[in-house]
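Q: How would the structure tokens look for this protein?
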Amino acid sequence: PESKNNMSKDFSKIKDAELAKELNQKRAELQKIRFTFSHGGNKDTKKQSNLKKDISKILTEIKNRELKNN
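A: Here is the predicted structure in token form.
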């Protein structure tokens, strides 16, 4: 079964504009989770960890594309 958060997404197949949009969405979601967490809210550390990994994967893909184009 697929995970509900698309955590196993292959970022290499996404266009540049969509990749930037995805990065912004994940950063916003992570910030929201951190804020909720710091105020005693839901402590979903697994989701926070997965978001950080996805952000890292997206940034790596962006960097690889920049290096490939130069």
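The CA atoms of residues 34 and 40 lie 10 Å apart.

The radius of gyration is 14 Å.

Upvote if useful.
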